[in-house]
Amino acid sequence: MIRVGHGYDLHRLEPLTPVGQGKPFILGGICIEHDRGPVGHSDGDALLHAITDAILGALALPDIGQLFPDTDPRWAGKDSAHFLRHALELMREKKFEVCNLDATVICERPKIGPVKEKIKSHLAHLLGCHVGQINVKGKTHEHVDAVGEGRAIEVHCVALLTSI
């Protein structure tokens, strides 16, 4: 049996604290040097949030916002790998594994290309699969809207799960 899920996340980007509300720019669990960072309740890792939602969606389970609401102080500043690990536990309980994952990160800056392989390697470690099962693409928004103006980051992810 196979299951497909789509995940999506968007975070506003602001100058880092104390100038703005931006947190360190973390993408796929990798800290990237940048003058802006995501504004969010947890650590703001849009890639891990989208992956988590893609896995939860493939399993027809509640989404990340339902399981870890931003109104709950327990999740304030939390490492997003925690949310992903929980989704993976649920996936394994239902007897599925990740077959492949395809993610598109959309932002003007920072450029994803220089850190793409490092992100993929870290994701393979988190997901317990081979790096060849993971694809991460970096795109821009051609200077259109908040993403294109560098004021936001957007991520889409599709996860294919297979039964074990």
Question: How would you describe this structure to a colleague?
Answer:
This protein is of the alpha+beta class. It has a single domain (2-163), classed as 60s Ribosomal Protein L30, Chain: A. Helix content is 28%, strand content 31%. It is built from 5 helices and 7 strands, in the order E-E-E-E-H-H-H-E-H-E-H-E. It has a 5-stranded mixed beta sheet. A hairpin with a 2-residue loop joins strand 2 (26-27) and strand 3 (30-31). The longest helix is centred in the first third of the chain and has 13 residues, at 46-58.
- Beta content: 25-35%
Widest sheet, order of strands? 4-1-7-5-6
Look at the helices and sheets and give the structural class: alpha+beta
CATH fold description: 60s Ribosomal Protein L30, Chain: A
Rounded radius of gyration (Å): 15 Å
Report how far apart the termini are.
Answer: 9 Å
